[in-house]
TrEMBL record:
Protein name in the entry: Uncharacterized protein
Keywords: Membrane, Transmembrane, Transmembrane helix
Native source species: Glarea lozoyensis (strain ATCC 20868 / MF5171)
Region (Disordered): 1-48
Transmembrane segments: 96-118, 130-154, 174-195, 210-228, 290-310, 316-340
Residue stretches in coiled coil: none
Superkingdom of this protein's organism: Eukaryota
Length: 382
């Protein structure tokens, strides 16, 4: 039975010639440039076969290549498309992880600490406390939003970060528009709640649930479009207007990794190719979209009810409104990580087994191979 070695890097992504063909009965998917063994920790070297060299997703390599990952995988449908991003190697995982951790600290922990410390520890008036919180809140979020907008619109090489199929200067992805909604709603709540001398504490407890509404709502709506087969009313990241909409989580992952983690168009191309080629991957994206969107909306409604009803003291409602949504997101994330790893492991094994079966049924006998190769001696022996 033919053996398949999992590789990740296509030669077409940099314009270099293809690697020499392997011996009959053995298919190899070789990287263009493999990471040296010295640069990979010993514990991770067993995973080298599925490691996508992070340099292949760099902007420099993107500018050099001759064709897209999508065109390469269309020409090689037997290959499982590889996604040019990994959390096992490289600095990108720390960049993305640090970005998420900083946003959670700024959006959740800081408002809670400042409110309870200033109110009960320092006996500071509410309007002063929230003047400080409003001035501080969202600093890293605003900066990161400005940076990702800069990458998509302003810089000369912004094409590397833009969604697939568009080179227009003003072409935000759907995640950028969702962030605009989140920032506008949360800022409005903070301003309205902190404007009077006697602050509206219940209004100031709502930014957490509002973030869930603004994030889970669009994901749920996109997933509905996908479920019913509706066409995109406008461009949604890499999906042009009039094309079928994909699950909502797909766009969030695509945009965040491509722009915030600097995966760029190579990541968008690899993820799109994987989605089109793998039914298991498509099902995972669909299930994750329902899991996050429905769960997020339920949690947002529950927090809203707790915050606005009078029997719950305002001081308690504030902690629930700011803390519970982020705690829920942490639990959902802890469930998602092993779930995704398990599904992708199953996807890889299933793909290899199907490839093995297909190759074994299509592989010519040794005598036929010799005849096709021009071995007249073998033909005479037959």
């Amino acid at each position: 039975m033919p053996q398949i070695i999992r590789g990740t890097r296509s030669h077409s992504d940099s314009g270099s010639p293809p690697a020499p063909q392997s011996p009959p009965g053995r298919i190899t998917f070789e990287n263009l440039r493999r990471p040296s063994s010295k640069s990979i920790p010993p514990a991770d070297r067993d995973h080298n076969g599925v490691y996508y060299d992070s340099r292949a997703a760099s902007q420099r390599e993107y500018n050099r290549r001759a064709s897209t990952l999508q065109s390469y995988y269309l020409e090689h449908p037997e290959l499982l498309p590889q996604i040019p991003f990994t959390f096992r190697h490289g600095f990108k995982r720390w960049r993305l992880g640090g970005y998420i951790a900083l946003m959670v600290f700024d959006a959740c922990i800081v408002p809670i600490l400042l409110y309870y410390a200033l109110t009960f520890g320092g006996n500071v008036e509410g309007y002063i406390t929230f003047a400080v919180i409003t001035a501080i809140w969202g600093g890293p979020t605003y900066i990161e939003f400005a940076v990702r907008s800069f990458r998509l619109v302003i810089i000369k090489q912004a094409r590397f970060f833009k969604p697939l199929g568009t080179d227009k200067r003003w072409a935000f992805d759907i995640t950028n528009w969702i962030l605009v909604l989140v920032i506008a709603v949360v800022t409005a709540l903070l301003i309205v709640g902190a404007a009077p001398h006697d602050v509206f504490l219940r209004v100031l407890s709502m930014p957490g649930p509002a973030i869930l509404y603004c994030l889970a709502g669009p994901v749920f709506l996109l997933s509905l479009y996908h479920h019913f087969g509706w066409k995109a009313p406008f461009r949604i990241s890499s999906t042009p207007k009039g094309e079928p909409v994909w699950p909502g989580v797909y766009y969030i992952v695509e945009d965040v990794v491509a722009v915030n983690a600097r995966g760029g168009r190579p990541f968008r191309e690899g993820m799109a190719s994987r989605y089109k080629a793998s039914p298991i991957f498509r099902k995972m994206m669909r299930d994750l979209s329902w899991f996050w969107s429905i769960g997020g909306l339920i949690m947002a409604v529950a927090c809203t009810v707790v915050v606005v009803i009078n029997p719950v003291p305002e001081e308690v409602a504030y902690g629930i409104g700011w803390g519970v949504p982020f705690l829920w997101a942490g639990v959902w994330g802890a469930i998602t990580i092993p779930w995704v790893r398990s599904v992708m492991r199953h996807e890889r094994n299933t793909w290899e087994q199907e490839s093995d079966m297909m190759k074994s049924t299509m592989m010519p006998t040794p005598t036929e191979e010799n005849i096709l190769a021009g071995d007249t001696t073998a033909e005479n022996r037959v």
